[in-house]
Amino acid sequence: MPEDDAYLATGPRVGIRSVERGDGERFTALARASVGLHHPWLAPPTTDEAWETYISRLDAPDREGFIICERKTGEPAGFVNINNIVRGLFQCGAVGYGAFAPSVGRGYMTEGMGLVLRHAFGPLGLHRLEANIQPGNELSLALVKRHGFRLEGFSPDFLFIDGAWRDHERWAVTSELAGR
C-alpha cells in the first residue's frame, strides 16, 4: 500500500498522483483490458509505442497528467489529463479522462475527478476547465454534471476519433462552481 505522501491529493478511497514514465506497462495493460469501455469515446495508449507518444506529450508545459489510484492497493483506477493549458488572462485547460474497466462503477472516477479539480483550481492556479464529450457518452456526461460542469455549446466534427470526425458537446466549470 502506497503512503499518502506519494499522492498530490487524497480522498477517502482514492489518491491522485502525476503520471510517470514507469507507469507504462501497467497503464497500457489496463487500457487494453478497457478497450470495450473506451470505444468509440477515446483511445488511450495500449502499446509501448503509443505509451511513449503519450508520456512525451505529458512532458510539455501545457499539460498535466494524473493517475487515480485506489488508496488501499495503489492500483490505477483511471486517469485524468489537463491538456492545452493556457495561462495569462485565460487560466484554462481541457480535461480528458477515462476509467479502467476493473474499477468501473465504484465511484473512483467521481472521487478522483474531484481531487483533480481541487488540484487544478488550487496549486495549478487554473480558473476554468473544459471537457469535450461525444453526446452519446452517458457515463462521461454524468461525471462532469456531478462536478458542476455546465453545457456551453456543440462542436460538429470536433475530434478525429476511431477513424471519423466526431461531434462533441462542450462542457465547462470555473473554480467557483466546481463541485456544485
Identify the notable features of this structure and list them briefly:
Aminopeptidase; 180 residues; eight-stranded mixed β-sheet; 34% strand
Quick synopsis:
The chain has helices at 24-33, 35-38, 48-58, 108-121, 138-146; strands spanning 9-10, 14-18, 64-70, 76-86, 92-99, 128-133, 150-161, 164-174.
**Which stretches are low in confidence, meaning pLDDT under 50 for 5 or more residues running?**
none
Number of DSSP strands? 8
**End-to-end distance:** 32 Å
Mean pLDDT: 95
Quaternary form: single chain
The biggest sheet amounts to:
8 strands, mixed
Q: Supply Rg.
A: 15 Å
What is the percentage of strand-forming residues?
25-35%
Structural class: alpha+beta
Strand order of the largest sheet: 1-2-3-4-5-6-8-7
What is the element string, with H for helices and E for strands? EEHHHEEEHEHEE
**Structurally, how many domains make up the residues?**
1
CATH superfamily caption: Gcn5-related N-acetyltransferase (GNAT)
Q: How much helix, percentage-wise, in residues? A: 25-40%
CATH topology: Aminopeptidase
CATH class: Alpha Beta
Overall spatial form: globular
The CATH architecture term is: 3-Layer(aba) Sandwich
**Count, helices:** 5
Structural account:
The chain has a single domain, classed as 3-Layer(aba) Sandwich (Aminopeptidase), CATH 3.40.630. The protein has helices spanning 24-33, 35-38, 48-58, 108-121, 138-146, and strands at residues 9-10, 14-18, 64-70, 76-86, 92-99, 128-133, 150-161, 164-174. The model has no long low-confidence stretch (mean pLDDT 95). By secondary structure, the protein is an alpha+beta fold. Strands 1-2-3-4-5-6-8-7 form an eight-stranded mixed β-sheet, sandwiched between helices.
